């Protein structure tokens, strides 16, 4: 696939949907996903991995009354597609009814598709990726104090997506992504060893940070963690580095996912229209950001997408909804459906970020007599039903408004409902990932240690 999906992909899906209708489906939609990826791995200056993968899959959904069934196939021959239609129809006749299933109404469908610049025609050769990974690891290993390497990885990928539905929707687009990372170790068995990493990712290959910068930052991060101490248990202000603050945004995204809200399994299920963050805090979901890693011209059900202030002045304004969860909640889809080829659509965020505040990170730290600056979190101790939060952490102790010494083997604990309300964003937001956050400060968390 050398560019955006050709019209033949839409023709193929249009024919498949027509076959399903002819075979007895009252409604149907089909999605085609073609992908190709190239990845390399270097360790200690030697090439350890070189992989290229190509895949293509077609998914068909058929609906008969309030019953729906899904089938997928990587075989695009007429016989294989006819067999897929027959299997889907047979399954749809016997599965239990789902009162909330169904395609979008015509007035919900995207009518125009913004140019998001999410396709880069550049396909880097394997030699280029190998050279990038080598330079990143070399620069990381050159940092004084680095004693070993977990390696450097570089990758590139391209995906083409086509969707056709019996409600009249038809659209195809392509996306690309590239990435580079390095991970190294500092110290030895006598003084202790610490690991850290750095990475960069982008839609356009040319937008990646320099390999030398990624490697040097990975080395610097690892070395500065040497000599870490374990602190006594206390309650102090906690500062989260942007790299780990993104995790809080991921927890928020999950808590306002319409599927979980409809099931009643989210700790925010009763908070729509209420204060969730402090006044002035804003969280944005923007599917139309140019060159955004999660940008999309429409959602997986053909519904129009739009930029939304999910949190406005601290107030929760919306759930993230696909058609099914919207119907369960008596609302309209917000255009957040994502899907693969073998399963039903489900809601997910696009480019999701916490808007910047007014204080710099240094100003935010300056008035903290004793506190904890977190640079890495471990484990999965987040309860999406209750909001209870407990994760292993490492970083630096704050003393007298400055970073004093490295800290490890501690746990940061609280409850996300209180954490969100006590969260203050700094001014250093950069939009680099699918989920982004500036540095944040949260007062009153428990740091559990010795």
Describe what is shown at a glance:
The protein is an alpha+beta fold and 450 residues long.
SSE inventory with pairings:
Blueprint: H1 7-22, E1 27-43, E2 46-64, E3 67-73, H2 78-92, H3 126-141, E4 146-165, E5 170-188, E6 192-202, H4 211-223, E7 234-240, H5 242-255, H6 258-263, E8 283-285, E9 308-312, E10 315-316, H7 323-328, E11 337-338, E12 346-347, E13 352-354, H8 361-366, E14 370-378, E15 388-399, E16 402-415, H9 416-421, E17 423-425, E18 435-436, E19 440-448
Parallel strand pairs: 7-14, 13-18
Antiparallel strand pairs: 1-2, 1-4, 2-3, 4-5, 5-6, 7-19, 8-9, 8-13, 9-10, 11-12, 14-15, 15-16, 16-19, 17-19
Helix pairs in contact: 3-4
Which blocks of ≥5 consecutive residues have pLDDT under 50?
none
Domain count: the total is: 2
* Terminal residue distance: 56 Å
| Portion in strands | 35-45%
In helices, the fraction of residues equals: 10-25%
Order of helices and strands: HEEEHHEEEHEHHEEEHEEEHEEEHEEE
**Main pleated sheet:** 6 strands, antiparallel
Total beta strands: 19
Explain the overall architecture.
The protein is α+β, with helices and mostly antiparallel strands and 450 residues long. It has helices at residues 7-22, 78-92, 126-141, 211-223, 242-255, 258-263, 323-328, 361-366, 416-421; strands at 27-43, 46-64, 67-73, 146-165, 170-188, 192-202, 234-240, 283-285, 308-312, 315-316, 337-338, 346-347, 352-354, 370-378, 388-399, 402-415, 423-425, 435-436, 440-448. The protein has two domains: 7-221, PmbA/TldD fold (2-Layer Sandwich), CATH 3.30.2290; 228-450, no CATH class. The strands form four sheets. It has a six-stranded antiparallel β-sheet with strand order 3-2-1-4-5-6. Helix 3 (126-141) packs parallel to helix 4 (211-223).
């Amino acid at each position: 696939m050398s560019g955006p999906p050709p019209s033949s992909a839409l023709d193929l899906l249009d024919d498949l949907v027509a076959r399903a209708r002819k075979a007895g489906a009252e409604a149907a939609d089909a999605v085609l996903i073609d992908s190709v990826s190239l990845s390399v791995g270097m360790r200690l200056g030697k090439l350890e991995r070189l992989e290229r993968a190509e895949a293509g899959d077609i998914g068909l959904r058929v609906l008969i009354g309030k019953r729906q069934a899904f089938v997928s196939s990587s075989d695009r021959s007429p016989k294989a597609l006819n067999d897929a239609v027959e299997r889907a129809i047979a399954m749809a006749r016997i599965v239990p009814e789902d009162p909330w299933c169904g395609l979008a109404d015509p007035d919900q469908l995207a009518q125009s598709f913004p140019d998001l610049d999410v396709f880069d025609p550049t396909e880097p050769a394997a030699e280029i990726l190998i050279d990038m990974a080598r330079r990143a690891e070399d620069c990381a290993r050159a940092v004084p104090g680095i004693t070993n390497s977990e390696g450097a990885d570089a990758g590139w990928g391209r995906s083409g997506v086509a969707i056709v539905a019996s409600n009249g929707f038809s659209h195809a687009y392509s996306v690309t992504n590239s990435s580079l990372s390095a991970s190294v170790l500092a110290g030895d068995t006598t003084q202790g060893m610490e690991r850290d990493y750095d990475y960069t990712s982008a839609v356009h290959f040319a937008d990646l940070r320099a390999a030398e910068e990624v490697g040097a930052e990975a080395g610097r991060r690892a070395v500065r963690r040497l000599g870490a101490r374990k602190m006594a248990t206390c309650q102090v202000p906690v500062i989260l580095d942007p790299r780990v603050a993104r995790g809080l945004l991921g927890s928020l995204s999950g808590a306002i996912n319409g599927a979980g809200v409809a099931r009643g399994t989210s700790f925010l299920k009763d908070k729509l229209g209420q204060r969730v963050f402090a006044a002035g805090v804003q969280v944005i979901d923007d599917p139309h950001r140019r060159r955004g890693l999660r940008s999309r011209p429409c959602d997986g059900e053909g519904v129009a997408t739009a930029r939304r202030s999910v949190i406005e002045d601290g107030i929760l304004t919306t759930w993230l909804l696909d058609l099914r969860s919207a119907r369960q909640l008596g609302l309209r889809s917000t255009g957040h459906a994502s899907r693969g080829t073998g399963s039903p659509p489900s809601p997910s965020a696009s480019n999701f970020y916490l808007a910047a505040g007014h204080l710099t990170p240094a100003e935010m730290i300056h008035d903290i007599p004793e506190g904890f600056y977190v640079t890495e979190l471990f484990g999965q101790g987040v309860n999406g039903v209750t909001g209870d939060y407990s994760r292993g952490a490492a970083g630096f102790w704050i003393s007298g408004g400055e970073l004093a010494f490295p800290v490890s083997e501690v746990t940061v604990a609280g409850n996300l409902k209180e954490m969100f309300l006590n969260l203050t964003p700094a001014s250093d937001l950069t939009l680099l990932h699918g989920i982004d956050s500036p540095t944040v400060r949260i007062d009153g968390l428990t740091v559990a240690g010795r």
